[in-house]
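Can't attach files on this board, so I'm pasting raw text. These are the components:
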Amino acid sequence: MAALGTPLRTFRGLLRELRHASGRASRPYRDTPAYQHIVAAFRANRVTSEKLCRAQQELHFQAATYLCLLRSVRQHEALHQEYHGRGERSPEEVAGLVGFRLPQQPGGKG
Amino acid sequence: ERKRFYQNVSISQGEGGFEINLDHRKLKTPQAKLFTVPSEALAIAVATEWDSQKDTIKFYTMHLTTLCNTALDNPTQRSKMQLIRAAVKFLETDTVCYRVEEPPALAELQKNEWDPIVAWAEERYNVAIGSSTSILGPNIPASTKDTFVNHLASYNMWALQGIEYIITQLKSLILSMGVIDRHITVEKAVLLSRLEEEYQIQRWGNVEWAHDYDLCELRARAAAGTLFVHLCSESSTVKHKLLQD
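---
Top answer:
Structure tokens for the assembled complex are below.
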């Protein structure tokens, strides 16, 4: 199975992503179920670089997949905000693009 | 767009499985069913999706929640057999079997990158698949389709929803089985699925707001689908074996 990297790297990556993912930070990310579940799972399986244990490989693949998910969602959202997040321009802005200003109409539109 | 209306997200165990609590309210599906999932790890991941939302709830980023809702509501009302048939039908237009003849560099790239994964699938499932440059696509023998139908039938309904989702995203049954069987990583499967795009990007340049945007979205969806399938089809026999040793 190619390109999984070391379990330690996956583990660190996951913790980093969870830190980014804590939305409102109502509690530290170390208290979240996800953090505790991942730490417990890695500890229980004591993922080493031993290539023989199938359970360890399955867990590592699952962890790497979850890391891919968290990372890709964060990156996608960042790109979305940067390029697609601004919405449409207002009529004032559109007029301003070509150097016009919308007229003041104190009585509202006709 | 909905504002985040809850402070705390937690999970609890109910009769039907694990439930998600947004403050004191229990999460429901779009069809107002109680949101329950069979796996604790899956519930935790869904809870994390809800807890990651900042001021507004961005449903388009919550892929696991969406997959669970689909499994619970089954809005297209398909039976297990219909899902399986839809999945296997994709083999007829499987991306990795559908080859170009021009430009030669791309044809070569497809051969080098896709032949190994097709060979893996043929060996793993003991079937003939092949590839084709014809516009009609490869000619898949009925025995090959039957083998895949039987294999997919061993998965439960939830896992099948996930499998069909991955196939739709990656546009390939073979690549989907590749990730599900843990033969390739999600990143590799996405790369292989987007081989022609990657080739064109190398040739003509990368456009971040389009290419990277699509790449990240495909990775997110494929990863969500794969994780969903694995968490829904986990058995306890692996743990049992460790205990016996």
